[in-house]
Amino acid sequence: MARRGSGGATAAPKPKKQRWARTRQLKQVYDMTVRVDPATRWWLLLAFGGPIVLGLLLGLLVDHPIYFTILGLLLGVLAAMFVLGRRAERAAYVNLEGQKGAAGAALSSIRRGWTIEQEPVAAEARSQDMVFRAVGRGGIVLVGDGPPTRVRRLLEAEKRKVARVVPNVPVHLFTVGDGGSEGEVPLRKLASRVQRLKPQLTKQEVAAVQKRLRALGGIRPPVPKGIDPMNARPDRRAMRGR
């Protein structure tokens, strides 16, 4: 009989609980997707039922209906999961459109090959326009989050700042929009557009560029009007915990 440790072994999560958690998560994804895109119900029905019907018909032709129906059932589950994943991704982008920081969220969906800054590297306090940055073998990508005609100035200013730190490194400017003008990319296509950029830097060069860009720092928090940071005094009672 195996002994338990002095502190008591922590019981591993039961398979039933794990399956229930996955089922609940899948239902949440389905509900969110259907709420944004009601046609998902019919696409899932087609993806799931189509292989089953085809498997049954093929099984009747070759006199193995049970085997081919089961095979069609398995293929139907895989097809339905694939369709749900694609429709859920599209629905997520629909929910993001028009929200502040949507460009950063879209960039963060890139899994590998690029380093994404989680916080905006430039921002305009009044308009709340922002610029997000990614660095990879394709160079430096700056994405404007705001009306394309307005955020362009912020993008150009950030490009000049970057060029002073890392000259001769390609810088690509994008704005999130309907794709009607040059450099304007729909939100759902932003990640794939960045990933399709032709590699122009080695891995060692990418690491060197990232190191230099860290010198630029991030966005400094605004100082409230009427407060001089040089003359501000700390609250000593708060420092003593009173």
Give the overall average pLDDT: 78
Low-pLDDT sequence parts = 220-242
Backbone structural class: alpha/beta
* Helix proportion: 40-55%
Q: Outline, from the CA principal axes? A: elongated
> What is the helix/strand order?
HHHHEEEEHEEHHH
Q: CA-to-CA gap between the ends?
A: 56 Å
Radius of gyration: 26 Å
Number of helices: 8
Q: Please report which band the strand proportion falls in: under 5%, 5-15%, 15-25%, 25-35%, 35-45% or over 45%.
A: 5-15%
What would you call the quaternary organization?
single chain
> Main beta sheet, described?
6 strands, mixed
Topology, number of strands:
6
Protein model, in words:
The chain is an alpha/beta fold and 242 residues long. It is built from 8 helices and 6 strands. The protein has helices at 15-36, 40-62, 65-96, 102-107, 148-165, 190-195, 203-213, 236-239, and strands at residues 114-116, 122-123, 130-136, 139-145, 171-176, 184-185. Strands 1, 2, 3, 4, 5 and 6 form a 6-stranded mixed sheet that branches. α5 (148-165) links the parallel β4 and β5. α1 (15-36) packs across α3 (65-96) and α2 packs antiparallel against α3 (65-96). The longest helix is centred in the first third of the chain and has 32 residues, at 65-96.
